[in-house]
Specification:
Layout: E1 2-6, H1 13-24, E2 27-30, H2 32-43, E3 53-55, E4 61-63, E5 66-67, H3 75-84, H4 88-104, E6 107-111, H5 114-118, E7 124-129, H6 132-143, H7 148-164, E8 177-180, H8 186-207
Helix pairs in contact: 1-8, 2-3, 6-7
Amino acid sequence: MRIAIDGPAASGKTTVGRALARAFGCRFVETGKMYRAVALGFLEGLALDEMQIEVTQEERFLLNGRDVTDELHTEQLDRGSSEVGTIPEVRARLVELQQAIAAHDNIVMEGRDIGTVVIPNADVKVFLDASPRVRAARRAGQRQEDDVEVIVEKLASRDRRDRERAVAPLKAASDAIIIETDQKPLKEVISEASELVEERLRLRCDDG
């Protein structure tokens, strides 16, 4: 079982993806943190070919053997991860690693190009979307920040970079189910996504 979850920043991908992974006994991989790890490596003066990025079964992210998981959610790396995502060599290397992970596990993988590039033959593809304002309110709550207007502008800027980049831009796969989450609590979104997975499992059993 391979489940691809894509969408813009703060659209609920991690919460939904982790819930699906628990429900269906899959490994969960948050690919955005891999790009954050690369951005951190660049900040520390490393060249791309000097970096070894690993993801453990426990969702820990290692940079040259060092656990950097707790260092990855900073404002600087919010922007840095989006910027390194426009570098073809970075994307090629991380996509190769992501595909290797997906080839050996039952997987729920979330990011921005999972259903279009990383695992285009995924069993289930979900694209989560929401307005910048709703996503900004969620991000503010997660990080205990007060200035929602500033977050709205940052998210809108990141959306533009992600959607307009030449390599693997953010977009829904042609066969993805798009779930608009503006007016839905995450519990409802998780339920809707779970039904999609259950339907796919039923079809697989019927075919088999």
